[in-house]
Backbone:
């Protein structure tokens, strides 16, 4: 289950990049994807739990999480628009570092010398990934900055919803958060949605269906089932592999190239993850 989850998350980078480079505008892809996922999660929650009730004190956290998730998707989809899927995937390798950083700032965790060293190593890895990217410098800088925005907002989302996991199921939390994010993405993408002419190719629609069902729905079920069996610490070791798997899949499926500096940068980010020995389980669905 863990390996399947990691592969599905990794494929999301290539699937999303494929769609926005084959005739689908970024928000005309992201908005329908999240609307569809929100409907699926709502239906699953009603069938399995018979209720969508949520405490009032949790609604504010859910609302804030929905806004953060919307920002996450804006960063993710436009990062893919400006740079390669493999580059974005390697940048997402910094997620454990960002998660601990935000948890430290918010008082959830305490910074240790080991974490500070891991953070510096991670920054060096990001610099190598950025330096190794080819193509237009301005486009790369936009893509890299937006990728870091996506990473930071996903880490913030992970920290924000963690306390809710003790009181509510991932299905119920995802229903609320995805619904608000879907509404915001639809509002922001109204112009693209109104002018979009979706390609008629079956490959486009098959990829879209996968992007909804695979990375957003199936992984949610598999991830939390696996955590219940093997524990979050063991599961997090697999989760840290997803971004390197994503980079490799992008090279294979999209014929992208990774420069030697980017490979070194990815390895450096991986070293930072091992150095910090993050013991936190990621949020229910990646990024993205």
Residues:
């Amino acid at each position: 289950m863990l390996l399947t989850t990691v592969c599905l998350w990794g494929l999301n980078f290539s699937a999303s990049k494929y769609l926005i480079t084959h005739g689908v505008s970024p928000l005309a892809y992201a908005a329908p994807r999240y609307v569809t996922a929100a409907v699926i999660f709502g239906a699953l929650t009603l069938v399995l739990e018979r209720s969508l009730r949520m405490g009032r004190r949790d609604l504010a956290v859910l609302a804030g999480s929905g806004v953060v998730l919307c920002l996450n998707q804006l960063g993710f989809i436009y990062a893919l628009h400006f740079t390669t899927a493999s580059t974005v995937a390697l940048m997402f390798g910094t997620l454990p570092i960002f998660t601990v950083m935000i948890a430290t700032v918010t008082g959830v965790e305490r910074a240790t010398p080991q974490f500070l060293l891991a953070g510096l190593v991670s920054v060096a890895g990001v610099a190598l990934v950025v330096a190794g990217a080819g193509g237009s410098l301005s486009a790369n800088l936009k893509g890299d900055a937006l990728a870091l925005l996506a990473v930071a907002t996903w880490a913030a989302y992970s920290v924000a919803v963690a306390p809710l996991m003790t009181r509510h199921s991932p299905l119920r939390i995802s229903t609320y958060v995805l619904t608000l994010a879907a509404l915001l993405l639809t509002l922001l993408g109204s112009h693209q949605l109104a002018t979009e002419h979706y390609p008629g190719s079956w490959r486009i629609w098959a990829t879209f269906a996968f992007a909804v069902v695979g990375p957003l729905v199936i992984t949610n079920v598999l991830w939390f089932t696996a955590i219940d069996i093997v524990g979050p610490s063991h599961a997090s070791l697999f989760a840290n592999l997803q971004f390197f798997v994503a980079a490799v899949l992008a090279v294979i499926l999209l014929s992208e190239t990774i420069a030697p500096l980017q490979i070194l940068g990815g390895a450096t980010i991986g070293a930072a993850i091992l150095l910090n020995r993050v013991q936190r389980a990621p949020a229910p669905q990646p990024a993205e």
